[in-house]
Specification:
The chain has 108 residues and is mainly α. The chain has helices at residues 2-22, 43-68, 73-101. Helix 2 runs antiparallel to helix 3 (73-101).
């Protein structure tokens, strides 16, 4: 019985930690993404890299949703996909900023 209680307590603690991570949100990516990464690239290259990042963001969002739809999948989602998804979203935001800064036109 004590082992079961320990298991339940561990699951609750893990869920609380995952909830704390989710409250950080995507602006956390700004801590790990170099903000001027795209600033010195020509417009066509920024647009091409942004397009690849948007595709990867969509893939990761789908993988995250698929993982979270199964029981206990939020653990897989946070351990496998959420950190990369946050990073990619930060890179997309940096690319959008570079597009505006360089006068490349609005992102598509």
């Amino acid at each position: 019985m004590a082992a079961r209680a320990k298991g339940i307590a561990f699951a609750i603690a893990l869920a609380a930690l995952c909830t704390a991570c989710s409250s950080v949100s995507d602006p956390a990516a700004f801590a790990v993404v170099t903000q001027d990464k795209f600033d010195f690239l020509p417009c066509p290259e920024i647009i091409a890299q942004r397009a690849n990042l948007v595709i990867r963001e969509k893939e990761l969002a789908e993988l995250t949703a698929k993982a979270e739809s199964s029981p206990g999948g939020f653990i897989v989602s946070y351990s496998a996909y959420r950190s990369e998804l946050t990073l990619v979203r930060g890179q997309v935001a940096a690319a959008n900023r570079a597009l505006q800064k360089n006068g490349c036109g609005p992102p598509k």
